[in-house]
Amino acid sequence: MKIGVLALHGAxxxxxxxxxxxxxxxxxxxxxxxxxxxxxLIMPGGESxxxxxxxxxxxxxxxxxAFARSGAPILGTCAGMIVLATEIAGGEEPVxxxxxxxxxxxxxxxQLDSFETELPFPILGDTPVHAIFIRAPIIERVGPGVEVLxxxxxxxxxxxxxxxxxxxxxxxxxxxxxxxxxxxxxxASEYSDPGEGTAADGTEPWFMGEAV
Length: 212
Ligand code: GLN
Hints:
5 helices; about 30% strand
């Protein structure tokens, strides 16, 4: 099973290494044809304005939208979250409007533009995630079909899921955290081999299973 990492810009290598660490074959995606045969796609952190330009330049917008609409799991981290939102506060055009949320870029301001914290992330079990936030976005509005996966202690939303689309404000790939990538791998396995997994009925902790 292969999972792609959008490799236009940003924290690409770290996602590739995290996928390798859980036994998944990573594929760098730069052109539409690179999506062929993939079972999932990760959109890394970086600068969303740069990603926006490169996505347009390489004609990736429609092919990635179609891939996501086919049910393939998509994970966006940080800038990757921004490009997945249907709405970006301040009025920038969305890039891949797949996630019914309003996202605010650089939401922590200058005084706290980077920080690390132990973040409860209940669907991953009792051990919190070591979350590294770097000029991170926040989700201001959550649409009706969107599930909140994690919040900061003050209640601000930093991780969400809408069906096959997941987005998180922070960088698990910089912290040696593999559980979020395992979750994507479990969804990717279900996508590539429907009926094999148990994701659909929700009765088993499918997301905690061994990497495939
Ligand atoms: N501040 C960046 C943006 O607005 C995101 C930062 C990141 O991905 N670490 O696009």
